[in-house]
Amino acid sequence: MVPLAPVNWDAYQADGVAALAAATDADAVEEARVRFLGRKAALPLALREVRDRETGMLLNTVRKAIEEAAAEAELRLAAAVAGRGLDFDPTEPASLHGGALPAGSLHPITQTRREIEDVFLGLGYEVIDGREVETTRYNFDALNFPDWHPARSPLASLFFDRDRLLRTETSPSQIRTMETRKPPIYMVSHGRVYRRDATDATHYPVFHQIEGLAIDRGLTLADLKGTLLHLMRALFGPQREVRFRTHYFPFTEPSMEPDVSCFLCDGKGCRVCKHSGWIEMGGSGMVDPKLFEFVGYDPEEYTGFAFGLGIERIVQLRHGVPDIRLLWHNDLRVLRQF
């Protein structure tokens, strides 16, 4: 193999960060990304040839700096939307603006949540709210989380004390519903959930989930697939397909992660789907019989399926939002686009 020419990596990093800072549109960001991070760029080629720890650390520092600059450039461009800027202070009394302020609109998360609710109401499901402050009994024990599961750690979840925490998912409302009713049950629950996630373009410590549960006689994986296929086509278009990959969740067995065929490239491969043709959507599976034992159902008589999706992720995918933090900054220049 031909040895790589020496590169001044400090200058390489500075040039890459500068090019991304100067980018004025998405094409310029992509051109800079390919130039400095693309498969044939000097940095990825050098990373493939690393043989010692020091060089690897140096090159990865350069790569991280340029990737962060690219993310910042996308965030900056997304915020610089077309249209007028704010010409009023929304915190001022309406009387200072002729008696009225410009009308607002629903937040994109609220819009998407209502669309999902409408889909399931049309299927005969019930929408149920739950508690944001939960007990470990309902958040972990009832959902079959083993004692060693990392979600039980204070490093992963937000505890008030030994027995109470901010819910990490909306599933506890399903357990509470099953405790008070007999099957059949068809329900969705939604709301904010909380985890100790590091904030980045795709993660935030507070986000919204919508979870579904169906309990009845004779339900199978085919019913789960048909339900998710109907939802994905309602959200992303009538040509969408759904596939499942095996996974592990404490409360379902078997457990699977559903993927939806990419709505931008129709499965041909693009940046959004990482050139796989598929987009990961969440978790799903058949309800573990241990959950039935917890609420007093007969697992020999009833079966069920459950699924959970992140609403912010759906908003990001549908509208091409590059950074989840844009949905939480309350920047009217962004929100006016919806």
Q: How would you describe this structure in keywords?
A:
2 domains; two-stranded antiparallel sheet; 11 helices; BirA Bifunctional Protein, domain 2; 338 residues; alpha+beta; 8-stranded mixed β-sheet; 10 strands
Verbal overview:
By secondary structure, the protein is of the alpha+beta class. It folds into two domains: 9-79; 108-335, BirA Bifunctional Protein, domain 2. Helices cover 37% and strands 19% of the residues. It contains eleven helices and ten strands. The strands form two sheets. Strands 1, 4, 5, 6, 7, 8, 9 and 10 form an eight-stranded mixed beta sheet that branches. It has a two-stranded antiparallel ribbon with strand order 2-3. A hairpin with a 2-residue loop joins strand 6 (242-249) and strand 7 (252-261). The longest helix is centred in the N-terminal third of the chain and has 27 residues, at 53-79. The chain is globular. The termini are far apart. The mean pLDDT is 85.
What's the helix and strand layout?
Layout: H1 9-22, H2 26-37, H3 42-48, H4 53-79, H5 108-122, E1 126-128, E2 133-135, H6 136-139, E3 164-166, H7 172-180, E4 185-194, E5 206-216, H8 221-236, E6 242-249, E7 252-261, E8 278-280, E9 282-287, H9 289-295, E10 303-310, H10 311-319, H11 332-335
Parallel strand pairs: 1-4
Antiparallel strand pairs: 2-3, 4-5, 5-10, 6-7, 7-8, 7-9, 9-10
Helix pairs in contact: 1-2, 1-4, 2-4, 3-4, 5-8, 5-10
